[in-house]
């Protein structure tokens, strides 16, 4: 039976470290200043998160999963800075990981309950790869979108992109 692979991608934002690697320091500072001027609540969130993490010794996702950050109490300035960056990112990245895990369980359960021959093959970072017979493309697409978008109720929509191909490279193409 011929099968196609589907790659499902959650939208992924470029981090400041990755962006900093692509921009000179002056341009990076300009971009960050403009960003925080446009979104002052983001800076407030980051500052508050670091302060709370320093007081508690950990961050916590909306799902209640904790990440200890002992670096925040280090006597080494650079280690403390790394801990602050971890604290700023842990809540958001941890929540994304929590949501993705819930979505994978929902998707696997949905595939099982609907008796589709489609199967989860692999999860890589914010992607899930399914093997789908051609006759199940529509059903598998709908099930995947529902599982991913409905994994968590937030005040913003979860963006999901589907792509198809006979192999992973083609699907990502």
H/E order of the elements? EHHHEEHEEHEH
Biggest β-sheet: count, sense, barrel?
4 strands, antiparallel
Strand arrangement within the widest β-sheet reads 4-5-1-6
Q: Which structural class is indicated by helix and strand composition?
A: alpha+beta
- Beta percentage is 15-25%
Total tally of structural domains: 2
Number of strands: 6
* CATH class value of the largest domain: Alpha Beta
- Tell me the CATH topology of the largest domain: Alpha-Beta Plaits
Gyration radius over CA: 20 Å
Report helical residue fraction: 40-55%
What structural keywords apply?
single chain; alpha+beta; two-stranded antiparallel sheet; Alpha-Beta Plaits; 6 helices; 54% helix; 2 domains; four-stranded antiparallel beta sheet; 173 residues; DNA polymerase, domain 1
Blueprint of the fold:
Blueprint: E1 4-10, H1 16-22, H2 25-38, H3 40-56, E2 58-60, E3 66-68, H4 77-113, E4 119-124, E5 127-132, H5 137-149, E6 160-165, H6 168-172
Antiparallel strand pairs: 1-5, 1-6, 2-3, 4-5
């Amino acid at each position: 039976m011929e099968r196609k692979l589907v790659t499902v991608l959650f939208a992924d934002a470029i981090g400041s470290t990755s962006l900093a690697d692509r921009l000179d320091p002056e341009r990076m500072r300009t971009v960050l200043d403009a960003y925080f001027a446009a979104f002052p609540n983001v800076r407030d969130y980051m500052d508050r998160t670091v302060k709370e993490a320093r007081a508690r010794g950990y961050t916590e996702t909306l799902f209640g999963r904790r990440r200890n950050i002992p670096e925040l109490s280090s006597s080494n300035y650079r280690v403390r800075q790394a801990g602050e960056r971890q604290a700023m990112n842990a809540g958001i990245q941890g929540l994304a990981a929590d949501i993705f895990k819930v979505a994978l369980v929902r998707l696997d359960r949905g595939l099982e309950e609907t008796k589709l021959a489609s199967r989860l093959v692999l999860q890589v970072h914010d992607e899930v790869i399914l093997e789908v017979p051609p006759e199940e493309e529509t059903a598998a697409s709908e099930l995947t979108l529902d599982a991913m978008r409905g994994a968590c109720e937030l005040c913003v929509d979860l963006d999901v992109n589907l792509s198809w191909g006979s192999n992973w490279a083609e699907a990502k193409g």
